[in-house]
Amino acid sequence: IEPVRLADYRPTHYAIRTVALDFRLDPEATEVTADLRLERRDGTAPGTPLVLDGDELELVAVEIDGARLKPDAYEAGPSQLTLLDPPAGAFTLRIVTRIAPALNTKLMGLYRTSGNYCTQCEAEGFRRITYFLDRPDVLAVYRTRIEARKAEAPYLLANGNRIEGGDIPGTDRHYAVWHDPHPKPSYLFALVGGDFDVLRDRFVTMSGRDVALEIYVEHGKVERAAYAMDSLKRSMKWDEEVFGLEYDLDIFMIVAVSDFNMGAMENKGLNVFNDKYVLAARETATDADYSHIEGVIAHEYFHNWTGNRITCRNWFQLCLKEGLTVFRDQEFSSDQRSRAVKRIMDVKLLKSHQFPEDAGPLAHPVRPETYREINNFYTATVYEKGAEVVRMLKTMLGPDGFRAGMDLYFKRHDGDAATIEDFLAAFADATGRDLTQFMLWYRQAGTPELAVSTDYDPGAKTLRLTFEQTCPPSPGQAAKEPMAIPVRFGLVGPNGEDMDYGSIEGVAVAGDVMLLTAPRHEVVVSGVGARPVPSLLRGFSAPVKLSVNLDTDDQLFLLAHDADPFNRWQAAQTLATRTLVEGSKALGDGRAMSIDTRLIDAYRQIAADDRLDHAFRALVLGVPGEADIAREIGSEVDPDRVYAARETLRRAIATGAEDVLAGLHDGLALSGAYAPDAASAGRRSLRNMALELLLLVGGPDAEARVVAHYEAADNMTDRYAALSALVLNGSTAAGAMLADFYRRFEGDSLVIDKWFVVQAMAPVAATLDRVRALTGHPAFSFTNPNRFRALVTTFATGNQTQFARADGAGFGFVADMVLDMDKRNPQVAARLLSAFRSWRALEGRRRAQAEVELKRVAAAPGLSRDVADIAARCLQ
Ligand code: HT7
Ligand code: ZN
C-alpha cells in the first residue's frame, strides 16, 4: 500500500461551497441525492478533472446544472468518481448514490444500530455515503433533508438547526430538514434516524443564547442519561469560564448508540456516542464509568471549538484537535474533581499505553508525516502525548501566556482548517517566545530519557544537578535532536518542607520550572543551607522517562514528605518498580525476591494517614501494572515472572498492613444515598483497594469478607470490586459469584461486558478456553464492538500472562480473531492486532510464537488496509 505523505499535501483544485443532501432511508437501499455547489480554485487550470472519493458506492445518476452527464464525461467506480472536463465557472453537481446501511458491518458511513440509522464519518466515512472531496480542508455549508417511514424512524436528526419537517401526505412517511450555518468538513457530517427516548434540558449561554439540550437513548434508558446531561451543562459552563468559548447553535444533541467503533464523535451539533459513555445508574455503572462519561461528554463538547470551529488542514494534523481537546477535558475533570488524583490517573494511562507504543514498532510522532491507513493513527501518542505537549506549552508560557496564545489562535483561525505550525505560531506571537525547538515534540517519536545526578556540597552550600537527555531511535528516525524539556522542581529540606535557595546557574529558570534545551546541563543551585532531596519533574511536567540517583532513603523521604502529591505517588512507583524488576529477575534465577521492610512500612503509613485524600491513598497502594514492569525490564520479558513478582509484593504489602487495611474496610463504608462525586468515589476506591489486598492475605475470613461485601453492595463499584477481586485471585467462590452476577444483570449488555472483561482478565491457564467458549455465549456478539472488545480485546491487552502464554496458544487465538473480525470490521480488527506491538521485548520462545502469528496474519489473503498496515509495521 502506498503511503500518504505530509510533504505531498496540496489544496484541492475545486472548492465545495454548499452541500444539499436528501436521504430516503431504507435498510437495504437508501437513496442519497447530493447537490454540491462547486467552484474552481484560483490557480487551477480550466478543464482540470475533478476527482471525488468514494468507498463501496453504487452510482445511480450524475448531473451538472440539471443536465444528465453523458457517459464519456465521467468515469465512475465504487471508490472514485471523476468528472473529466468540469465547467469553467461555478456549477452544481448532482450525484445520486444507493447504499445499504443494513449490510454496513464496518460501522463507517451510514449504518444500522438496534434498528436505528446512524452515521460515522470521521475519518473517511462520508465517502461511503456519496462521492465527495472527503478531506478535512474542504469546508461547506450543509442542508440535510431526511425522509423515512414514520413508524421506523420517528426522529430524524442532522447537524445544525431544524428548519422544516412534517408528514408526507398520502404516505406513511415523514421528513425533516436541517441547516448547519457553520461551514464544516465532511467528517463532521451526521445523520440519525430512529426511535428513541429523549432527555431534554436547556442551557443559557454567557451571551444569553437559549440552547435546547437533547440526549437520545434507546427506549427505557432515559433515567440513565441524567449524569451525562449534568456533565454536558457543566462542560458548557466551564468552557465559557475558563476559555471564554460559547456554544453557537440553538440546539445541541447527543445520541447514544450501542454499536460504535470508538468512544464518541463530535459531529457539529449532533454528537454520536457509544452508549457506554452516556448511560449510568448506581446499580449498573462504576465510579470509573461515571468519571469516563463526564470526561468523554466534555471532550466531545469541547471539540465544538477545538476541532469544529477550527479544524485540521489534513489528517496529519489530527493532534491539533485531539491532543488539545484531551488537554481541555483533563483540565475540566481536574477542576471538577481532585487535580492531583486526576493528574496521577492521566500519567498512569500515558505510561501504560503511550510509553509502550512509543517504544515499539508502532511508534510515530505526535504529528506523523506518513500513514497508510489514517484509522490506525487514533492512538495514545496523538491523543495522550498530544495533550502532554499542550500541557508543556502551558507550563513553559505560564497560565497568562497560554491563555493569550489560545485567544490568538481562536481569533486568527476561526473557520479555518489549520496546522500545528499555525497553533504554535499563535503562542509564539502572543508571548514573543521562540518555539522552534518545541516543535520537535510534534516531529520526533520516542520517549526522551532524562538522567539526573545530584550532588550536594555542604561547604559551598551548593547543589549540583547534571541533566542528560537522550532519545532512543524509532521507526524512520535513527537520530534525535535534543528537546525543550520543562522540569518543575522543588528542594525538599530535612524538615520535609520545600527549602529556599539562591541563584541557579546553567539553565533557564522561570519560577519553579527549569527549561532544559541542550543534551547536557550542569546546573548549580547556590544558597542551599542543608542537603535537600530534589523533587524533579513535579506534576510530571514533561512526558519523559526520568532516572535520578536518589537512593531508597531519599525516595522514601519524598514519598513521606513531598509537597507535590504527584511526586509522592511517583516515589512509591519508583521504589516498587525497582523491587519488581529486581524481583522478577531473582525469581527467574531461582532466588527469593527481596522486599525492603521500609517500603512496606511506608505503604502502611500512607494507608493509615487520614490527612490524605482517600483516592490518593488508593492510588499509592496500587503497585505498577504488569505492562509497566515489563516496559522497565525492556527485553527478554517473561510475563509469568513479572506476574509472580507483582503478586509477591502485593501480598507483602497486604500482610504488613493487614490491620490498617481491615480498619479501612470496616470503617469506610458509606451510608446514605449513593453519589458519584469524587469524594465518595475516592472513599470507595480506598475501601475496595483494602478489600482486594486483604484477599491476598488469604484464609477463609478474607474470602468471606469479599462475599459479604458483594452481597451488601448497593452500587456497581462495590459489587464489581468484589467480583473482580475474587475472579482475578482465582478464589473458590468466584464461580458462584460470576453466576450470580450474570443472573442479576442478564440482558443489560453494558453490565454483561464487565462480566466478560473480568473473565478475560483472569491470570490462569483455563482462561483461554473460557474466553473461546464465551465467544459462543448468547450474550456475546461478533457484530457489536463493545462485546468483542470486552471479551477478546481485553484478553489480548489486559491479560499479559495468558495472551503471551509460553505455548503460543494465546497469540494463535488472537490472530484467528483478528482475521475473522477483519472481514467484518477492519478498524476493530486492527486495534486488536496492535496488542502484539511489544512482542519483540518478550523472551525468546514467546517472541518466536508471536512472530509466527504476526506473519500468518500478514500473509492472509484479502486483508484490509487497516490490518495489513499494523501487521507490516509490527514486523518491520
Ligand atoms: N474524533 C473522534 C474520532 C472517532 C473516530 C475515528 C475513526 C473511526 C471512528 C471514530 N469514531 C470517533 C472521537 C474523538 O476523539 O473525539
Ligand atoms: Zn477527540
Automatic annotation (TrEMBL):
Instruction: Write out the entry's keywords from A to Z.
Output: Aminopeptidase, Hydrolase, Metal-binding, Metalloprotease, Protease, Zinc
GO terms (BP aspect): proteolysis
Q: Which residues cross the membrane?
A: none
Enzyme Commission code: 3.4.11.2
The molecular function terms in GO held by this entry are:
alanyl aminopeptidase activity; metallopeptidase activity; zinc ion binding
Family per record: Belongs to the peptidase M1 family.
Tell me what this protein is called.
Answer: Aminopeptidase N
Look up and give the organism this protein is from: Prosthecodimorpha staleyi
